[in-house]
Amino acid sequence: MVFLTAQLWLRNRVTDRYWRIQEVLKHARHFRGRKNRCYRLAVRAVTRAFVNCTKARKLKKRNLRTLWINRITAASQEHGLKYSTFITNLIKCQVELNRKVLSDLAIYEPKTFKSLAALSKRRHEEGLAAALGDEKEPEGIFSRIVHYH
Amino acid sequence: MSSFSKATQQWATFARVWYLLDGKMQPPGKLAAVASVKLQGLHKPMYHQLSDCGDHVVIMNTRHIAFSGNKWEQKVYSSHTGYPGGFRQVTAAQLHRKDPVADIPEDILKNLVEELPQPRKVPRRLDEYTQEEIDAFPRVWSPPENYRL
């Protein structure tokens, strides 16, 4: 071994410990208590936070869909319809709007939602008439399916 | 599609509305279901769990609520005080007897906006029908003169 100076004798020393710790602490700065300052506690808290973040990506999709469904239920009840009737009849009229768009319309475009509800109600009545009435009567206006070829 | 800056400001969106619900001859479970929808704000298209969007519901005539079946004697409300030997079980009849029925204050009565429809249709008594309606009702059979009930 040839070490011409004392400095070269030192090997494998950590020199950037401060920055390694800051990398973790920067994600914990908005936490409550000592876990926003002390590295030991912060490591555990930050790991849990990241794990919850990944798990929540699936839950977010479920929660947002539930919220949209609740909002559409509220809006369709205002127009005297049930959510299930509204959605199924809208699909039968070939109106392929998803629940996100429907809930946004219900909040920001009430008149558009009112017309959608009226369309759904009319299709519902035509469906009932076709099921309960005689077979001889012709299909209703909104019951005709458009074929896109 | 829906831009928050382009939508016009509706200043009364988060205003709380006072509803009245008459509980005479109504099942308390259905009263609770109707009231809970309004209290949570699930009747509004802009519902969110964290936004305080519920309304107030005042239920009057709670003295005359009607449980169906034998629930007055059979339904048991259980609770525990936390102390040993503190398990309390009260039947619905006892709870109703000890429940205080307060008068609704005047300022609330003046603030009520709408009355909600009752969840159960109360049938009319025989003396509330007019003689013409009683005569118009079809008779299934009339007993012969020497028939003994």
From TrEMBL, chain A:
Q: Which domain of life is it from?
A: Eukaryota
Pfam families xref list: Ribosomal_L20
- Stored SUPFAM superfamilies: Ribosomal protein L20 (SSF74731)
Which keywords annotate this record? Answer: Ribonucleoprotein, Ribosomal protein
Q: Name the Gene3D superfamilies for this protein.
A: 6.10.160.10, Ribosomal protein L20
Q: Which family does it belong to?
A: Belongs to the bacterial ribosomal protein bL20 family.
Name-wise, this protein is: Large ribosomal subunit protein bL20m isoform X1
Q: Which organism was this protein described from?
A: Erinaceus europaeus (Western European hedgehog)
From TrEMBL, chain B:
Question: Please, which domain of life does this record's source organism belong to?
Answer: Eukaryota
Using the record for this protein, list the coiled-coil segments as residue ranges, or answer none: none
Question: Pfam families attached here?
Answer: Ribosomal_L13
- Record carries keyword Ribosomal protein: yes
Q: Which organism is it from?
A: Erinaceus europaeus (Western European hedgehog)
Similarity-based family: Belongs to the universal ribosomal protein uL13 family.
Query: Which keywords annotate this record?
Result: Ribonucleoprotein, Ribosomal protein
Q: What is this protein called?
A: Large ribosomal subunit protein uL13m isoform X2
InterPro entries the record matches: Ribosomal_uL13, Ribosomal_uL13_sf
Which residue spans traverse the membrane?
Answer: none
